What does this fold into?
Amino acid sequence: MAQSKYQEWVSDKGLSMIAGWARTGLTDEQIANNMGISRSTLNEWKKKYSDISDTLKENKQKADIEVENALYKKALGMTTKSKTYKMVKVDDDVLRVRRERFLNQYKLNHPKATKKELAMKSIEEVPTYERIPIVENETELAPDTSAIIFWLKNRMPEVYRDQSFKELNEAQADKAKADAETAIQKARIAKIQADSLEGLNDDGSNITIVDGWLDDEDETSTDKDAD
It folds into this structure.
């Protein structure tokens, strides 16, 4: 059944819908759901029908570029323009000329239209009031700190990585080193306690354990202290 559906989606209308979904950021899973097929079927169609795969790829890239450009502009700061409008009543003579011009053209395309239909259509298409711009505003937007941080962390991670993560990594490395040294000392203590019941090293020196750490003393120095 799915195989017979592909013709609908390789048509101009079908590809246009796929392009729109891709540009709005939908995933392949979501696009497949909109098409009424499974994700696996969409994957097969992408392999078989280049129109579908190309449409998805090109429009996803367009969306990515547009978002990247928007982020770039926000990070740098930009100038925006907007207009303020007001509604004004059209001069009677101007309104009459506009409606007559409209009706002359409309009659040519609708020769059977009644006078009532013509009057209603002219009122609908040529309104009494029109919107005109009165002020153009220009606004300076300062660079957005969040956008700057996001951009630098992702584009230059080797330079602009989070300091907190760096400090955490260094602290974890120091702790791991200390834990390893402690484990080595404990292993030495356990071995010596098990193998040397006389409390002597192989070379005859005394063994002292202080707060869980080894302190090897030279036998001669110990004897000297004793004297």
Notes: Residues 216-227 have pLDDT under 50 and may be disordered. The chain has ten helices and four strands. The longest strand covers residues 129-141. The CA atoms of residues 207 and 216 lie 5 Å apart.
